[in-house]
Amino acid sequence: MCGACCLGTSPSSSPTWRSIVQVGKKRPIRTLYSKKYGVDLIRYTHGDANTVVYSSNKLDDTIRYLSLTDNKYIRYFPGHTDRVVALSMSPVDDTFISGSLDMTIRLWDLRSPNCQGLTNPLGKPVCSYDPEGLIFAAGVDSEAIKLYDLRSFDKGPFASFETLFSRVCEWTGLKFSRDGKQILISTNGGAIRILDAFNGSVLHTFSGYNNSKGISLEACFTPDSDFVMIGSEDGRVHVWSTESGMKIAVLDGKHSGPINTLQFNPKYMTFASACSNMAFWLPCVGD
């Protein structure tokens, strides 16, 4: 989500198209097909709502840089030898990072097809930039957090935290809060966790939502970092306070299936949730 528009992929195990939906509108503005390569992770580029980078789920593991205005590829980023499972765009410039099942994390620049840096975290990675764009965090093999400085990326992590909770599911996503103080770990199990970004300690564990089938459910912070939200197998959205750790709401969006994607708008007080259909949410203002 870039603020005014939201991107969605086809509702299948092997998505082949992307739809651009304008906030407040019921129909897609445009549908773009990628039948040859398939579509998996999609990210808007920094400061440009007309271009995206995305990973494929067919043919190869090259990342592609696409213009949404004319549906033409601007650049290709080859290098990964297995499926890309993490993709994060810098909040301050034209660099991005990708994590793959080939057990590598790569640093890229939109202006060059060549990999700008590579590290081997020794496990399946999930990764994300911090809000300042100075460091990134990598979750490795669902058991450790490693912090890297972008200025010395190839030298390895400057800090590592081993998590002490038992591994009963896989980590499927990692995000920083907007204030940079917390890290949110999404999983394919029945619990998500918030960690202290400075020492790796567990601040809260959020559970009590349905995910019996082990689906990868995306969780997110609200822009003020005060709440965490996640969809569930039964089509509901669960909301917790990051301060108290208490669940404060369960929202029913009438979804027909599991909500595997949820994104809060970075500019407006709205968020989007999606299964095979997409729902836009607005605040309810009382008298």
Shape field:
globular
Structural class: mainly beta
Q: From the alpha-carbon coordinates, what is the Rg to the nearest angstrom? A: 18 Å
Q: What is the strand arrangement across the widest sheet?
A: 4-5-6-7
Distance between the termini: 30 Å
Helix content: under 10%
- CATH homologous superfamily of the domain at 166-279? YVTN repeat-like/Quinoprotein amine dehydrogenase
Q: What is the CATH class name of the domain at 166-279?
A: Mainly Beta
CATH topology of the domain at 166-279: Methylamine Dehydrogenase, Chain H
Give, in order, the helices and strands.
Answer: EEEEEEEEEEEEEEEEEEEEEEEEEE
- Beta-strand residue percentage: over 45%
Largest sheet: 4 strands, antiparallel
* Low-confidence runs of at least 5 consecutive residues: 15-21
CATH architecture of the domain at 166-279: 7 Propeller
Mean of pLDDT: 86
What is the helix tally? Answer: 0
Organism: Oncorhynchus kisutch
GO biological process, one term: DNA-templated transcription termination
Subcellular location: Nucleus
Keywords: Nucleus, Repeat, Transcription, Transcription regulation, Transcription termination, WD repeat
